[in-house]
Design a protein that fits this description.
This protein is an alpha/beta fold. The protein is 51% helix and 12% strand. It is built from seven helices and five strands, in the order αβαβαβαβαβαα. The protein has helices at residues 2-12, 27-37, 50-59, 76-85, 106-112, 125-159, 164-178; strands at residues 19-23, 43-47, 64-68, 95-99, 117-120. A five-stranded parallel β-sheet has the order 2-1-3-4-5, with helices on both faces. Helix 6 (125-159) packs antiparallel against helix 7. The longest helix is centred in the C-terminal third of the chain and has 35 residues, at 125-159. It is elongated, with a radius of gyration of 19 Å. The N and C termini lie far apart (55 Å). Mean pLDDT is 77; it is low at 1-12 and 180-196.
Length: 196
């Protein structure tokens, strides 16, 4: 029965082309996570510390980060703090903590620090996949809300073309939806431009 359940779980997760960055200082841990993810279609990249992870996020598109908590150079808590504080679209990327810290309160502490989810080590494949599906679903919900906000802001600008706050918010929303570089200018404010 267990094998059938695993097959069902695998079949229900089609992650073709979903880019995952695994950040862990231990090569074996990165290899295990890669072996768990690639059969589902995930495209895996690796970084051995938080500093390299930030450089990767700044230069390459990524959908999800698996972040070890204890690493040299830059640890997980400092890395998540910098990700969430970044003025870039990837500041909102789903990040799952990978940690051997399984004490009471550790999960809550990591979520409060800005992590989207939590998987304890040693990593269990089913738990990892389940947590990825959960945090990606939450992220998609946020994206839908952003698209609705974008539509409302376009309507506001059509009614009031000179509304700078709406124009700035629309730029933010559209950058978030498209995952564009944060500093791109989106032409807004021309009467009738955003209405069919």
């Amino acid at each position: 029965a267990m094998n059938a359940g695993e097959d069902t779980n695998k079949a229900s997760v089609n992650a073709t082309g979903v880019a995952v960055l695994i950040v862990d200082d231990q090569p074996l841990n990165r290899k295990v996570a890669r072996l768990f993810l690639e059969p589902h279609g995930f495209v895996v990249s690796e970084a051995e510390n938080g500093q390299l992870a930030l450089e990767h996020l700044a230069s390459q598109a990524c959908d999800l980060v698996l972040l070890d908590v204890h690493m040299p150079v830059m640890d997980g808590p400092e890395t998540i703090r910098r990700i969430r504080a970044a003025s870039c679209p990837w500041a909102r990327i789903p990040v799952i903590a990978l940690t051997a810290d399984a004490m009471s309160g550790d999960r809550e502490r990591l979520l409060e620090a800005g992590m989207s989810g939590y998987v304890s080590k040693p990593i269990d494949q089913r738990e990892l996949i389940s947590e990825i599906v959960r945090v990606r679903g939450a992220a998609k919900l946020n994206l839908r809300r952003t698209q609705e906000a974008s539509s409302d802001l376009k309507k506001a600008l059509a009614l009031e073309p000179g509304n700078k706050r709406a124009a700035d918010l629309l730029m933010l929303a559209e950058n978030r939806v498209a995952g564009r570089a944060f500093n791109l200018r989106i032409p807004v404010g021309e009467p009738g431009r955003d209405v069919p």
